[in-house]
Write a structure and sequence with these properties.
Length: about 150
């Protein structure tokens, strides 16, 4: 499947994008079929080949979400913009405080909440194994001392 998408080029922390046509499974850094233009998000400047983009779309190439929004903005294709950004959901505790849930009555009727006891997993601490190295060290020291005494005689 062919995709019209952005390929990042430019300096570190100053991205500039190429608009390319490539196979969906291929990496954007590698080979691509055709360069269709470029886009600078810092100045919001886009230089695009409109006739070639329309040609590839007629052949079945699908624009990515960001490219689709860029093409709509540049009036190369018609349609509405697509929501591309991944917006994280609020944490459960934040939602409870800010908005009442749909299944709970909005009026002052409070329902009792059943609190479940928090289950903490028990961590079993293993006692360190007693090693027999200490007596061995003492025995070795004694043997060395005896050997020294014998060597002196």
């Amino acid at each position: 499947m062919l995709v019209i998408r952005l390929s990042r080029v430019g300096k570190k922390k100053y991205a500039i994008f190429r608009v390319i046509v490539s196979e969906k499974t291929k990496d954007t850094v590698g080979n691509y079929l055709e360069l269709l233009g470029n886009y600078n998000p810092h100045t919001n400047e886009a230089v695009l080949k409109a006739d070639r983009i329309k040609h590839w779309i007629s052949k079945g190439a699908q624009p990515s979400g960001s490219v689709h929004n860029l093409l709509v903005e540049q009036k190369i294709i018609e349609g509405e913009k697509i929501k591309v950004a991944n917006i994280k959901k609020k944490k459960k505790s934040d939602e409870d405080e800010s908005q009442p849930k749909a299944d709970q009555p909005a009026s002052g009727g409070k329902e009792e909440k059943k609190e479940e006891p928090k289950v903490t997993p028990e961590v079993k601490m293993e006692e360190p194994k007693k090693t027999t190295e200490e007596p061995k060290k003492e025995e070795l020291k004694e043997e060395k001392e005896e050997n020294k005494k014998e060597n002196k005689k």
